[in-house]
Specification:
The structure is a single chain. With 297 residues, this protein is α/β, with parallel strands linked by helices. It folds into 2 domains: 90 residues, 3-Layer(aba) Sandwich (Rossmann fold), CATH 3.40.50; 133 residues, 3-Layer(aba) Sandwich (Rossmann fold), CATH 3.40.50. The protein is 40% helix and 15% strand. The protein is built from 10 helices and 11 strands. Strands 1-11-8-7-5-6 form a 6-stranded parallel β-sheet. A 3-stranded parallel β-sheet has the order 3-2-4, sandwiched between helices. It has a two-stranded antiparallel sheet with strand order 9-10. The two termini are 29 Å apart. The structure holds NADP nicotinamide-adenine-dinucleotide phosphate. NADP nicotinamide-adenine-dinucleotide phosphate binds next to helix 10. The site of NADP nicotinamide-adenine-dinucleotide phosphate has 25 residues, from helix 10.
C-alpha cells in the first residue's frame, strides 16, 4: 500500500508546538514579529503574502505588512528593508519574490539583516548551511526534511535524487540531505535541465524530490519500486474550474502512486510545510534576537 504523506497534519503539529514556543517568548515580554514586503501586482504573490499573514495571526506572531507599488523606484524597497532591519519589533523579514525587473534581487537578498533573514537566502546564511552550521534553513527544504522525519523515512544511506537546482529548493535541499547529521547522511544526486538519462537517475532513487516546475512531468516509469516521492511542484494549469485553473504538482500522481512506497499529494503535501517552517524560523529569530531560550519542534 502506498502511504500518502499528509503535509497538512504534520504542519498542524508544528504550528501547535510553535504556539507553545510563542507562549514562552510572551512570558518574557517578547512578541515575535514578521514583516512581509510585497512589491508586485502578481495575484499569486498577493495570495502567498496574505496566507503568510493569516498564518502569523493564527499562532500569535505579529504580522507587519508593507506594500510597495511595483513601478516605484527600487530605492523605496531598499529603504524599507533598512527600516525593518532597524526595527526591534521585527524579528523576521520576508521580501516576496519575484521582484520587478528594475530591482536588483541580489542586493535585496544581501540587504536583509542575516539574523532577520527567515527565508535563509542571505549569502551568510547560505554559507552557514553549506558548512553544516545553519542558522535558518530555507522553508521548503526544511519542510521536506520534517515530512521525511515525521514518516520515519530514513535519509541515512538513502539515494536521494532531486530534480531541480534552484537556490530556493534544489540546492539547499541537496546540501541539507548531504550533511553529516541524523536528518542528512544521504547520497545526493541533483538533476537539472541538462541532465542526461534523467529517468535512469530518478529510478535509482530511494527518495525522489521533484522540484522542476513542470506539471506532472515525473511519471510512473521514472520511479523505482517502493521509492518515497516528494512533490514540491505547484503549477497552475488551465482547467474548467471557477478560477479557470487548477494546481498540480510536478508528479503525475495517478501513474506514480502504484509504484511509490510513499508520496506527497499536491495540494496538501509540501505546501503547508513551507508555510509552517516560515513560522518556525520567525520564532527562532525572535529567540535569537532577544536571548530567550525557545524550544523548537
Ligand atoms: N510547495 C512549495 O511550498 C513550493 C515552494 C517553492 C517552489 N515550489 C514549486 O516548486 C517548483 C520548482 O520551483 P523552483 O523555484 O525551484 O523552480 P525554478 O527556479 O524554475 O527551477 C526549476 C529547476 O528545475 C530544472 N528543470 C526544469 N525542467 C527540467 C527538466 N525537463 N528536466 C530536469 N530538470 C528540469 C531547472 O533546470 P535548470 O537549472 O537547468 O534550468 C531548474 O534547476 C515550482 O513548481 C514551484 O512553484 C513550491
Amino acid at each position: 500500500m502506498t502511504e500518502v504523506i499528509d503535509g497538512n497534519a504534520v504542519a498542524a503539529d508544528i504550528r501547535e508546538s510553535l504556539t507553545e514556543s510563542i507562549e514562552t517568548l510572551e512570558s518574557e515580554g517578547v512578541t515575535p514579529g514578521l514583516a512581509t514586503v510585497l512589491m508586485s501586482d502578481d495575484p499569486a504573490s498577493e495570495t502567498y503574502v496574505s496566507m503568510k499573514q493569516r498564518d502569523c495571526e493564527e499562532v500569535g506572531i505579529d504580522g507587519i505588512h508593507v506594500e510597495i507599488d511595483s513601478d516605484a523606484p527600487a530605492e523605496e524597497l531598499y529603504e524599507t528593508i533598512d527600516d525593518l532591519n532597524a526595527d526591534p519589533a521585527v524579528h523576521g523579514i520576508l521580501v516576496q519574490m519575484p521582484l520587478p525587473d528594475h530591482v536588483d534581487e541580489r542586493r535585496v537578498l544581501r540587504s536583509v539583516d542575516p539574523v532577520k533573514d527567515v527565508d535563509g537566502f542571505h549569502p551568510e546564511n547560505v554559507g552557514r548551511l553549506v558548512a553544516g552550521d545553519d542558522r535558518y534553513r530555507p522553508c521548503t527544504p526544511h519542510g521536506v526534511q520534517k515530512l521525511l522525519e515525521a514518516y520515519d523515512i530514513e535519509t541515512e544511506g538513502a539515494n536521494a535524487v532531486i530534480v531541480g537546482r534552484s537556490n530556493i529548493v534544489g540546492k539547499p535541499l541537496a546540501n541539507l540531505l548531504l550533511q553529516k547529521a541524523d536528518d542528512g547522511n544521504a547520497t545526493v544526486t541533483v538533476c537539472h535541465s541538462r541532465t542526461e538519462d534523467l529517468a535512469e537517475k530518478t529510478r535509482a532513487a530511494d527518495i525522489l524530490v521533484a522540484a522542476a516546475g513542470r506539471p506532472e512531468f515525473i511519471g510512473g516509469e521514472m520511479v523505482g519500486e517502493g521509492a518515497t516521492v516528494v512533490d514540491v511542484g505547484i503549477n497552475r494549469v488551465d482547467a474548467d474550474t471557477e478560477k479557470g485553473y487548477e494546481l498540480v504538482g510536478d508528479v503525475d500522481y495517478d501513474s506514480v502512486e502504484a509504484t511509490a512506497g510513499a508520496i506527497t499529494p499536491v495540494p496538501g503535501g509540501v505546501g503547508p510545510m513551507t508555510r509552517a517552517m516560515l513560522l518556525y524560523n520567525t520564532v527562532k529569530a525572535a529567540g535569537l534576537q532577544t536571548d530567550v531560550d525557545v524550544e523548537l519542534p
